[in-house]
Amino acid sequence: MLEALYKVEWATLKHFYDDAQVQIPSAIKRLNSPNPDEHIRALEFLFGSQQDSGTVAETTQYIIPFVLELLVDEKYSSKKQLLIELSGLGIEPFAKHYSIRKVRCHLAAYDALESGLQIYLNLLNDPNFEIRKGAIEVLGKLSNSGVFIAQKLVSHFSLEENNDVKASIIDSLGTILDVRDFSQIDIRKQYKDFFKDIVESDFESQLRYNAAHVSIRVSMGNFWGKQIKPDEVSPKVAQTLIEEYWKIHLDHSLDYIQREIIELLSQLDSQPLESLLNDKRTTPEDAYHIVRGLMFSAVNSYHAPARWRDQYWNEHPNFEKRQKGNFHILGGVHFAIIPETKRIIRAIVENDIFWQLPTNLFSYFYDLPNDRDELRKLINES
Prior knowledge:
The protein is mainly alpha-helical. The protein is 57% helix and 0% strand. The chain has 20 helices and no strands.
């Protein structure tokens, strides 16, 4: 390791911290320290800490090979931490604001990461479940080898006994299928039954939820009008999502997961969301997000521009400022009020819980009236 360490011209490479020429070789040496605390401090310098964590620099492609050497050392004690850093790398070579130099930097980091493919696969047999889990999370980033890795992950799932590792297999497989390129566009169809079988199994609820989530996301795809393919998801997907919704209900630290579930349900038919809306456990804040999902479903909003969709799901109201109506920042999308749309809006109008909070959802997103009576009149006359 040390011989190769000084062959790299660190002084000519940009790092996100100063004095790379001296500090990077020193940090790599400290990864070999008998003190595990030294490993953590070294990794923070090499891969970034706090807001810098996962940053890809020109140095990253040269640091990774030294990390891979340690991963094959059977006696090395900090493999879990090494895998966390590798899986956390923010490799995004095609971000639209990147210069050509930065694109090349990210591609080179990816190639360095992928060069350890066999190492990560070997770690699937490690007795430590956290190391197996970490290796799977790294494998999920290697989309260029996605077809091969997907086969390996599915094979390992049937052998794996730890549910945390199984959950990582589901998520990593979903990531691989979600970022496929045109040459791999059909591989999702090969694995739709894998997710279906898990959703319909007697596995613990978290695994079934993960599979339901991933199956919807993968079915929608990344091209054209992101719309679900019903034949690619289990009929029990909605039931699984709703079970998870009520399981975490009122745990405000998990509000983001509840909103995520509503977004997923909005890709299905409206009945599950209508059931949630009318459930006696639903609060006015819950109802707001459920209605957002119902409206998305009602007007086929997946046809709206991508920027509109992203803002629709990412902008959420601050209910402490609700009197000012400062909920959204984006204008509406045009649509026709067809019979199904009218039926869903009527269900919203008739729900008392939702109207306990003021809203400007309808006007900001759909150019519809925010007043309950005016909305009722509109659908009755249209």
